[in-house]
Amino acid sequence: MTGIQALERLFPNKRIKPKQVEKIEFEYERHGTLSLIANWDVARGKVVSPSIGPTRTEQDFSEHIQRTIKIDEKAEWIFIVDQLNTHKSESLVKLVAESCGITIDLGRKGKEGILQSMDSRADFLSDESHRIRFVYIPKHTSWLNQIECWFSILVRRLLKRITVRSTEELSQKILNFIDYFNQHFAKPFVWKFKGFKDHK
C-alpha cells in the first residue's frame, strides 16, 4: 500500500450531531508519505510482519520477505502477490534459493538462466516444489488478494479521519492499529465470491 499521506488537519473536526456523521476538516498540511508492506494470514485472519517505510523498492520487498520467513525458518510459506516487478526480482530469487538450500547456478540477470527475465524469475519463484513460493494473481484482480481487503479496513477505520504531524507519528498509529486489530478483530474473511456469470 503506497502513498499513505501524513496529513495534519488545519482545524478541528466539527462536533458530531445526532443522526449526522462526523464532519472532517478538509484543509490540511502534508508531512510526507509512507508505504506499507504487510502479509495477511488467511487461516488466522491476522496481519503479519508489517513493514513501513518511505519507499517500496525491490530491496524493501526482499527485506520484508526475509524478515517474514524468519518468524518460522523451517515452515512452508506461500505468498499471494500481484504482478509488480518487485515481486519477481533478482534479490527475491536469491533469497528463496538461499533459504531453500537451492545451490544450482541461477544465471545472470538479463543474460541467461533463472535470473534472465521477469518471466523466468517468476517461474522459479512460483515452483511448487519450493518451501517458499509465490502465487501471482492475474492483472486487474487485486480483490483476489485478501490483504487488499484488509487495506480497505485500514483506510476506513483509521486513515480516512487521521491527523498527524509527521510520518513517524503516522507509522506508529498504523502499527498500533494493526496490534489492536490483531488482538480484537482477527478472524478469517468469509470468501463469498462465486465467479463471474457468462455475459451474452
UniProtKB/TrEMBL annotation:
<dbReference type="InterPro" id="IPR038717">
    <property type="entry name" value="Tc1-like_DDE_dom"/>
</dbReference>
<dbReference type="Pfam" id="PF13358">
    <property type="entry name" value="DDE_3"/>
</dbReference>
<dbReference type="GO" id="GO:0003676">
    <property type="term" value="F:nucleic acid binding"/>
</dbReference>
<protein>
    <submittedName>
        <fullName>Transposase</fullName>
    </submittedName>
</protein>
<feature type="domain" description="Tc1-like transposase DDE">
    <location>
        <begin position="21"/>
        <end position="170"/>
    </location>
</feature>
<dbReference type="InterPro" id="IPR036397">
    <property type="entry name" value="RNaseH_sf"/>
</dbReference>
